[in-house]
Every structure is written in structure tokens, then in C-alpha cells.
From TrEMBL:
<protein>
    <recommendedName>
        <fullName>FAD/NAD(P)-binding domain-containing protein</fullName>
    </recommendedName>
</protein>
<comment type="similarity">
    <text>Belongs to the paxM FAD-dependent monooxygenase family.</text>
</comment>
<keyword id="KW-0503">Monooxygenase</keyword>
<dbReference type="InterPro" id="IPR036188">
    <property type="entry name" value="FAD/NAD-bd_sf"/>
</dbReference>
<keyword id="KW-0560">Oxidoreductase</keyword>
<feature type="region of interest" description="Disordered">
    <location>
        <begin position="135"/>
        <end position="157"/>
    </location>
</feature>
<dbReference type="InterPro" id="IPR050493">
    <property type="entry name" value="FAD-dep_Monooxygenase_BioMet"/>
</dbReference>
<dbReference type="GO" id="GO:0004497">
    <property type="term" value="F:monooxygenase activity"/>
</dbReference>
Length: 297
């Protein structure tokens, strides 16, 4: 995601807010951290101290075990295991091919489903490339957290969205902090707000993946029947309500999520509590000058 953000202008955006931060340490590898002390160790030995450490070091996060207390790698969990292949084809190469030229419609997401695998693709990066993901199921593995906090099934369509929502949630929550003693409560709020959303998305992705890559048999027949019902309509504007809900209901509920709104709702509920506590803290910390006894000499 760092690459995507760089394309979107991460560098200039950081430069713009640099006056609000002590410093940005670019291209520094983190080799360890002490969450109790609030320190991060960089390769080379420097130790950086902070009030909060946000670990966003991706799928192979070295920080995850410090938070979860588990040493296991997300790739070594028992359950289902998938092989996911991702590649990009220059759109021009497709356009030059008579049979493949039809794949260059920017409004279409192409999907091929088979016996235990799914193959899908669409135009990306200003329509210069067509990206494909092929995901045959190879053996059992239980899908669990993805990326640093919540790894998803490879090829999931909501991974990046979840990461951006995480950042938005944290940013908006922290904009309400008035004193650093409130940090633990706001971090708890972050968990409380994000956990249900992340779990629901993980379950949705697992379900979708299971359905689309179903091996030959009853689940595949059921899926094909549903897809045929959906394709019987020219477009979704003419779909009857029941079919629309069956095909797109869950997807729309997932896409309609507004992470900022979730924080606003939470803040509406808790604002007076936090502001009252902060007023009390300020009152208690006011230094009342002690009058010196008058001298009667
Ligand atoms: C081939 C492929 C195709 C994908 N397609 C899609 C898609 O179509 N849609 C979608 O939503 N998602 C897609 N994803 C998933 C998406 O890329 C991730 O969900 C997203 O990048 C996660 O963002 P992140 O910031 O959590 O982690 P990352 O993007 O992995 O960023 C982690 C950053 O931390 C840095 N880092 C790691 N360790 C350390 C360390 N010790 N010290 C310092 N820095 C460190 C890394 O250099 C990196 O810059 C795809 C992923 C892959 C691999």
C-alpha cells in the first residue's frame, strides 16, 4: 500500500504536515519494539520513544506477535491453504489480440469460476494494465488475520479498503484526545469500533472465496443457479428486489460502510464522559497558591 500511497502523493502530503511532527524517519527498518516502554528499535541500534506505536508493517508483520502474544505465522495456521497468483498484462497487448480485446472494457470485472479455483481480472492503473488473480485451493488452512492487523484471503477485494478505514478511524479518534492519559481508552475504542467490521469482512471474503472456488458438487450447482438468476436480467436496475438482495445485498452492506461515521457515533455517545473527566483532571491539577502566614514580627 505504501507504493500506492506514494503514487497518490504520500511524499508531498507528509512534507505538508511535517511542522506538526518531530520528524519522519524514512527508509528505516524496525527490528524490535517494547510496547510496555513505548520504544521502537531501528536497524543500526537507534531507539525511538513514543506515546503510541502504530504497527502497519504489512502481512509479515514483526510487530503482530508483540500485540497478540502469539509466535505463529499467519501462514502456518491449520485449516485451509490457498495458492494465489497475481499478474498484470499491458492493456495494449490485449487490445492487439482479436480474442482478448473484449477484456479491455473498463467497466467490467471479469470472473471465471472452475472446479476449486477462481480467476478474475479487471483494468487497473489508469487502464494501462489488466490484472489477474488465479486462486486454486490447494490444501486446508484456516484463513485468519491479514496484513499487520487483519490478514485477509489472498486476492480479497477489501484488504486495502480495510487498511484505509483503520487509518481513518485512528486519525478521527485521536483528533478528540485532550490528554495523553486518555490514550488507553481511545485505543480500546479503536478495537471496539474496528473489530466487528474487520471480522464481518473477513467472514464475507471467506464465504465469497469458498462460494466462487467451490469444487464440483452441490455448492457449485447452487452458486451457478444464483449466478444464472442474476444474469437473466439485462442489468441490475431491472432486477426484482429479492434477486437483487440475494446477489448484491451483502456486497452493498459491506461497501456502504463509513468508518468516519462509526467514530462520530462513538464520540456522540462518549463525548460528555471524556470532556467531564478532562475538566476534572484539569481542576485537580490546578496549583492553588498556598498563602504564607503573615509575619507579626
Ligand atoms: C499481488 C497482490 C495483489 C493485491 N491486489 C489487491 C486488490 O486488488 N485490492 C485490494 O484491496 N488489495 C489487494 N492486495 C492487498 C493489498 O496490497 C494489501 O491489503 C495492502 O497493501 C495492505 O496495506 P498495509 O499498509 O497494511 O501493508 P503493506 O502495503 O504491506 O505495507 C507495509 C509497509 O511496511 C513496511 N515494513 C514492513 N516491515 C517493516 C519493518 N520491519 N520496518 C520498517 N518498515 C517495514 C513495508 O516496507 C511496507 O512499506 C494485493 C496484494 C498483493 C500482494
Amino acid at each position: 500500500m505504501t507504493k500506492i500511497l506514494s503514487q497518490w502523493g504520500l511524499g508531498p502530503a507528509l512534507a505538508k504536515i511535517s511542522h506538526k511532527c518531530t520528524s519522519f524517519k524514512m527508509r528505516n527498518e524496525v527490528t524490535g519494539a517494547d510496547p510496555i516502554e513505548g520504544t521502537v528499535t531501528l536497524r543500526g541500534g537507534d531507539v525511538v520513544k513514543a506515546d503510541v506505536i502504530v504497527a502497519a508493517d504489512g502481512h509479515d508483520s514483526i510487530m503482530r506477535p508483540l500485540v497478540t502474544g502469539e509466535e505463529e505465522s499467519v501462514d502456518e495456521l491449520p485449516g485451509q491453504r490457498y495458492l494465489s497468483l497475481a499478474f498484470q498484462v499491458p492493456t495494449d497487448a490485449l487490445r492487439e489480440d482479436e480474442e482478448l480485446a473484449s477484456l479491455t472494457d473498463p467497466l467490467v470485472w471479469y470472473l471465471w469460476v472452475g472446479d476449486g479455483y477462481i480467476f478474475h481480472g479487471n483494468l487497473v492503473v489508469g487502464e494501462q494494465d489488466f490484472t489477474d488473480i488465479e486462486t486454486p485451493k490447494t490444501r486446508k488452512k484456516r484463513g485468519r488475520k491479514g496484513e499487520a492487523g487483519h490478514p485477509l484471503v489472498p486476492g480479497s477485494r477489501h484488504s486495502t479498503a480495510l487498511s484505509i478505514e483503520d487509518a481513518q478511524t485512528l486519525g478521527r479518534l485521536f483528533s478528540h484526545i485532550q490528554h495523553k492519559s486518555q490514550l488507553p481508552q481511545f485505543l480500546n475504542a479503536y478495537e471496539e469500533i474496528r473489530q466487528p467490521r474487520v471480522s464481518a469482512t473477513q467472514e464475507y471474503e471467506q464465504r465469497q472465496f469458498g462460494m466462487f472456488s467451490a469444487p464440483a458438487g452441490p455448492p457449485m450447482i447452487q452458486r451457478d443457479a444464483m449466478m444464472r438468476a442474476a444474469l437473466a436480467y439485462e442489468d441490475w436496475e431491472h432486477m426484482d428486489e429479492d434477486t437483487f438482495k440475494m446477489v448484491w445485498g451483502n456486497e452493498l452492506a459491506l461497501m456502504g460502510h463509513d468508518a468516519g461515521e462509526q467514530v462520530d457515533d462513538w464520540w456522540t455517545q462518549w463525548r460528555s464522559f471524556f470532556e467531564g473527566k478532562e475538566r476534572a483532571r484539569q481542576r485537580d491539577s490546578i496549583q492553588i497558591p498556598v498563602l504564607q502566614p503573615a509575619s507579626y514580627d
